[in-house]
Amino acid sequence: MNCTLKNILTSLFLSITFTSFGQSKIKGKIIDTNSNIPLAMTQIKNTNNEVITTSNLDGTFELSNSGLYSFKKEGYIKKTIELNNNPYYIIQLNINPSELNEVIINANHIPKKLKKATASIHIISSKDIRLSNNTDFSPILNRTPGVFMQSGALNTNRITIRGIGSRNLFGTSKIRAYFKDIPLTNGSGETTIEDFELASMSHFEITKGAASSIYGAGLGGVIHINPQNAFLNQSSLNTELSLGSFGLKKGIININHGTSKNSFRAVYSDTHSDGFRDNNEYNRQTFTVTSNHFLSEKDELSFLASYVDLKAFIPSSITETDYLNTPKKADFNWQQAKGFEDAKRGILGLSWSHDYNTKIKQATSIFMSFRDAYEPRPFNILEENTLGYGIRTRVLGNQKLFNKMLNWTFGGELFRDTYTYKTFENLYEDFPADTGSVEGKPLSNFKEKRSYYNVFAEANYEFSDKTTLSMGLNLNETAYKLADRFEVSSENPDQSGNFKFKSIVSPKFGLSHLFSENISVFSSVSHGFSPISLNETLLPNGQINTNLKPETGWNFEIGSRGSMLNNSIQFSMAIYRLNIKNLLVSRRTAQDEFIGINAGKTQHDGLELGLNYEWLQNENITLSSFINYTLNNFSFKEFIDDTDDFSGNDLTGVPSDIFNAGILFDSAFGFYGNINFQYVGSMPITDANNLYSDSYNITNFKIGYQSNLNKTLKLDVFFGLNNIFDTQYASQILINASGFGGNAPRYFYPGNPVNYFTGINVNYVF
């Protein structure tokens, strides 16, 4: 009897022991593949399609048994994976382009579904990027309502959002941009994104309107670029070769390697184009590295490095007569000088994220950037160097307040850069015609130190499952220090000095409400500002104009977004008014001399509409279409420039309206393609409104074929045509151009005529 009892107890003990070992917990975290945002409330199902559990607010989950599980969250593609007895898993989910309203966005600090956002935010998905040509940003960005990118050449671009930045003569300003958490905008508010390789990007999040409460300086909004990360537990090699019109040759190599907790991606690209116009040759090499490391259940580390080596010749703008009759030619002086831009740019960033507990986490990024450039121009030769560095940190939390969820964040950003620039005489006219630019004696030598900081706080309070209140506040301060290192004389007065803006406080209030599960409305009131560049503060007598004020404005908007008919229809709409005061105007006083003035006020009234419709979607075929429309009613409310009163005139450099439409096709048989149409209305070229550009239509298409040759090898071949109907149009306008020496003003950058591109992409998975 005793022996029998002993055997029973022993058997029971062993059974419990082995059961315990057999039921060891499997833990993990579910994240967005490219942003690493934790994905809460993700359904985890077994092979019987039964929901076993859902992920927590921080994306974590826990399972009792190993086996085959599927992970599905609205807005993301379903993923099935076998989980064994590994102690910890990182599960990556990819965005589903047909469910963008359900996607978790991070453009406003606090992760939330797009449909609950209280501002106009547009997502350009990886599919949108893939279906465009792989060289030019403008067709991609111009499909976003409210965004307009002019492209005079691959290295000559200007981006405006809701009309902000249109008065910038060259390049993009008054719009902030980030590559992940690393700022691409320098201390003067200037931004360059077109030099980065499209193949290194996963998607864009574009916040339109005054967003200073979130990101500090920048009246127009924010372009947030998310880099393409490598997949965990996978290694691959991808190569692509493209050829096209005007001597286009482009090669891309990217290497991806991922383990269970680490991923690495390196992208190299080499692009060459002879260009459509004379003196239009373009050469660019890029190298981008991203890596992600999940150090523990609480700690993540990511690394970003980007290097660009660019040499691009500059045809510049031409007169109306040349634009209409000989658009291929470059400006005579730029042609004779063989003017070009030779620039090297680099970015380094390290980001760390730590979960203190399920309710509080911290994200910190340190970064540095540099730019070395040499630019021979007909009027002088410019040599410039920039070195910038900074830190950005924020704490995020969630808690219950009056039994309702409160999500909050606070943090700050400190940025400093040192900018040195020298100018030299260009003696090209003293040498034979084919010589090009020849450096002469120095004309100037400056060193600028620019710094700014901003501290911010934002909170989203969910009154209910349907209604969310958003509040934000930002304190920003910007300062410049200029050292004039050139010999002082009567012709060259000492321009050294300090310039510091008063602190600016930018608040934001927003409200969103879900009328149904898939349809929401939102409204917001937000404040923004744009800094003054130090060059704008300099007067011809060498003094710094301390009376200048930064542009400030209030943005008021109401809108709606949502989906219907089981996500087959997705729509967005926004109506806004943006009032700007202390409008900054760059008055040109000589070939390379500008002074800044506060000229008055502008009023920006606009309507933005977007509609996507999936005509057909099944296992074999996807057929969809999109249309979007932008209506711009922008005007000078008060604008006095010297003795000229332009009050009541249309805002210069912004089209009256923009319409985009397209059809996209994809199939399980490998064939895919799209055709896009764009209409751009006329725009005023001068503040006096006595000259307008012509409206124009552009149509592009791309077709391709993908094939899985075997389990590891994938082939993609493609062909495309841009400007199918060979429309003559001005791809960029130089507003308020002046004619020097009795010459006609040079307003126009001719757009490319009909042109093709073709290529092959090979992907091998190890």
Describe the overall structure.
- By secondary structure, this protein is mostly beta strands.
- The protein folds into 3 domains: 23-94, Immunoglobulin-like (Sandwich); 117-215, TonB-dependent receptor, plug domain (Ferric Hydroxamate Uptake Protein, Chain A, domain 1), CATH 2.170.130.10; 318-765, TonB-dependent receptor, beta-barrel domain (Maltoporin, Chain A).
- The chain is 7% helix and 56% strand.
- The chain has a 22-stranded antiparallel β-barrel. The chain has a 5-stranded mixed β-sheet with strand order 10-17-18-14-15.
- β20 (248-258) and β21 form a beta hairpin.
Give me some keywords for this one.
766 residues; mainly beta; Immunoglobulin-like; Ferric Hydroxamate Uptake Protein, Chain A, domain 1; Maltoporin, Chain A; 5-stranded mixed β-sheet; 7 helices; 46 strands
Brief summary of the model shown:
The chain has three domains: 23-94, Carboxypeptidase-like, regulatory domain (Immunoglobulin-like); 117-215, TonB-dependent receptor, plug domain (Ferric Hydroxamate Uptake Protein, Chain A, domain 1), CATH 2.170.130.10; 318-765, TonB-dependent receptor, beta-barrel domain (Maltoporin, Chain A, Beta Barrel), CATH 2.40.170. With 766 residues, the protein is mainly beta.
